[in-house]
Amino acid sequence: RVVFASFRTSAPQQAYFKLWSIGLDDGLPTSLPLPRAFSGAYSPDGARLAFEEFSTPFVPEWYETSMWRHYRGGRTHPISIMNLSDYSVQKLPWTNSNDSFPMWLGNTVYFLSDRNHTMNLFAYRGDNKQPTQLTQHDDFDIMNASAGSDAIVYEQAGYVHLLDTKTGQTRRLNIEVNGDLPWARPQFKKVVSMIRNSALSPTGVRAAFEARGEIFTVPAEKGDYRNLTQSQGTHDRSPTWSPDASRLVYGLFHRRPGDPAANRAAVEIPACEHLVDDDGAAGCRRTDRDPRRT
User: What is the reported pLDDT for 292?
Assistant: First the structure.
């Protein structure tokens, strides 16, 4: 069966949560015999239920984002176990700590607790008097956890970790997500809203524009637009015409691989002169000389 929390019957509205369960083939959920509860997990035989009575944050929806490390106020609570045959309740050993996310594997109840200041994963077996701390994180709290058949997965310090319940060993998972990333594919873009600089040629035949890191020239009447730079990984900008309109000079903004200075700040280098005639024909004369060098 699936167990979930809901305030559908709380009075006044949303005053507290109760646990409900529904079978995979059943039509309607039924409430569990608990006055209130925020999360819970059945024992493997279905005879007992480990639960947390309410959430520590005042707004339950914040329970994964609201930080309550070492909070010792009135909303702390232990993990409890209810015997569903006689409705008796047993509270796990507890000393005013934040205990949450009860999980049940075999004869062991797993849960999160900050009883040693940082939120870590603990295990409680019926034959033990005190819970056992399984993880030893001392920097960032474990934010949430979920149990499988023989392992527990949890989030800590922005990473996903997996605890093998048989060996007690924890390892950080290396998750790689390869997406289609359609926005990174070559595509046509309208750059009219991205124009940052412009320059009219002295003859008035064409105008140069900087847009989206490229230098374009556009005719006043006849001809078509031309992308003069068509560069990858660079930001071409600030076009300037020569007095006779035969050349176009622009700045190149990029990082030089392996250049120590470039690792600290980007360097702007006048790297190319384009030869442009009145008909729009363009040619490039590169000046690959770094002005910082002699």
Answer: 33
Q: Is 23 helix (H, G, I), strand (E, B) or coil?
A: coil
Count Cα neighbours of 106 within 13 Å in the Cβ-side half-sphere: 11
Tell me: pLDDT of 137 over 80: yes
C-beta of residue 217 within 8 angstroms of C-beta of residue 225? yes
Kindly state the greatest CA–CA separation across the chain: 98
HSE, side-chain direction, 13 A CA sphere, residue 185: 5
What's the rounded Cα separation, in Å, for the pair 249 and 239? 6
Q: Is the pLDDT of residue 257 over 80?
A: no
**H-assigned helices in 25-78:** none
**Side chain identity at residue 214, one-letter code:** E
Q: Name the token pair of 225.
A: 């637009």
Sheet holding 159-164, edge to edge: 142-147, 151-156, 159-164, 170-172
SS3 178: coil
Q: What is the pLDDT of residues 49-69, one digit of tens each?
A: 999 998 888 777 776 666 788
**Which of the four pLDDT bands, split at 50, 70 and 90, describes residue 223?**
confident
**Tokens representing residue 291 in the block:** 């002005």
The Cα–Cα gap between 206 and 87 comes to 87
